[in-house]
Amino acid sequence: MTANGKKLAGGSDYSTNGSQIMLNESWLKTLGNGTYTLTYTFSDGSTDTFALTVKNVKSSHTHSYTAKVTKEATCTTDGERIYTCTCGDRYTETIPATGHSESAWIIDKAATATENGSKHTECTTCGKVIKTEVIPATGGVSDRKETVIFTGSAKTSGWGQAITLSTTKEGGSFDSSIIEKDGYFEVQFKGGTDKAEVILQSWSGGTDWARVSPTEVTEKDGIVYAKYSYDDVAAAFGTTDFSKVDRFHVGAANGDIEVLSVKYIIEKSTEPVDPVDPVDPDEPEQDPYVSIFWGAKSCGSWGQAVSVMTSKNYGSLDVSYLSANGYFYVEYSGAENEFELILQSWSGGASWARVQPSETGKANGHYYAKFTYADCVKALGAGFDKLDQLHAAAKNGDITVYSICYCTPAR
Q: What is the rounded distance in angstroms from the CA atom of residue 339 to the CA atom of residue 302?
């Protein structure tokens, strides 16, 4: 055989067959996919080269890759992961950026009756501030009166009395006329949250030893703040004629306490009385209600038209009348179903609980929405004692709120 005019010398990897070059099949099977350069030696000692391409050879090796993250993904940048086989083969995979994870609203400054507050959301991973928003002033002005009964340090244990004061009619310093409706005793003390009680003693017509348990208790920095409402005090004393009080005590309820201060606080809202009944007066089965807001306040998308602080934060919303069989009733105008009720808590409930209405419709020329007690508690994740502020807010549209009230159907 000749190639390029020359006679081929025989070899183990190839042989001649007429005018063709025959390659050794066993040798070919050793080749993987790829392009090879073959050099042939002729009988006269000269050489020549030829290209050989091998395709579709199945490998007997099965890749087994191990993954290793070489760069972690962040909220804003991609990461990287490398897969390496035992044979040395490798490839790279991109790990997509995670994106920011937005928190619930965080209160930076609570709104007051006359000053706006502020709030923001932030990424729960990197802390970047995502949104900021103004909290409108509540608009409600509260007439607050405090009477200091005791300050200092007074200790007792067991069932003893840390403080004992005779009333002015008995020649002492405690003036029982300070106990007015809409007020409450506030006792600050150290000890267990249920370890202090107010005691009214009478030998002139009231209950001789009226023990009052706290209506509401909070604790901060090791100090307990206990409130004893007017209604609870009157119920325990058996009468609202507090001229019959002869001696006032703050005692321990089977524990050790240190009393730091005692006050009687009265808070009365100075917001005007509703000029018009916010619920349709022609409705024959109108439920009894307490008005929370009446007027006309507007806001744009995702804003709050009305914000009302609870009484424990010196606002006008007294949560004690939010009974379990009742509901919030709101009338508004704007886009239908663009209203939402928001319950805000920074004392143990959900920080920003959005409540969906249980019923909607039209009344008095406006849209209305109802929010049941059960739905509100479910969204808040706690009882209304954890409610700090209520908002009447817009979703993605403009609204005007005309009335908010809490209705209590007859049982």
A: 10
From the list 132, 157, 133, 128, the residue with the least C-alpha distance to 253 is 157
Q: What is the DSSP string of 219-244?
A: EETTEEEEEEEHHHHHHHHT-S-GGG
State whether the Cα torsion 104-110-113-116 is positive or negative. Answer: negative
pTM exceeds 0.90 for this model: no
| Contacts of 196 by beta carbon, 8 Å cutoff, 6+ apart | 187, 189, 214, 224, 226, 250, 251, 252, 253, 257, 259
Residue 299's beta-bridge partner residues? 399
Residue 126 tokens, joined: 């990197």
Decide if 100 contacts 81 (C-beta within 8 A).
no
Note the pLDDT tens digit of each residue in 172-217.
999 999 999 888 999 999 987 678 899 999 999 888 999 998 888 8
Q: What is the C-alpha separation between 162 and 6, in angstroms, rounded?
A: 124
Q: Indicate the range of 136-145, 152-161, 401-410 predicted with least confidence.
A: 136-145
The length of the chain in residues reads: 411
CB contact at 8 A, 346 and 107: yes
Rounded average pLDDT over 282-310: 79
pLDDT value at residue 20? 60
Residues with Cβ within 8 Å of 225's Cβ and at least 6 positions away in sequence, in order, are 186, 187, 188, 217, 218, 219
pLDDT digits (tens, 9 = 90+) for 302-338: 888 898 888 888 788 888 888 888 899 999 998 888 8
Tell me what the pLDDT averaged over the chain comes to.
Answer: 82
**d(C-alpha 225, C-alpha 260), whole Å:** 10
Arithmetic mean of pLDDT, 234-239: 89
Share of the chain above pLDDT 70, in %: 86
User: What 8-state DSSP symbol labels residue 317?
Assistant: B
Region of residue 5 (left: phi > 0; alpha: psi -120 to 50; beta: else): left
Do 310 and 393 form a contact (C-beta atoms < 8 A)?
Answer: no
Cβ count within 10 A of residue 153: 12
Residue 99's contacts (CB-CB under 8 Å, 6 or more residues apart) are: 75
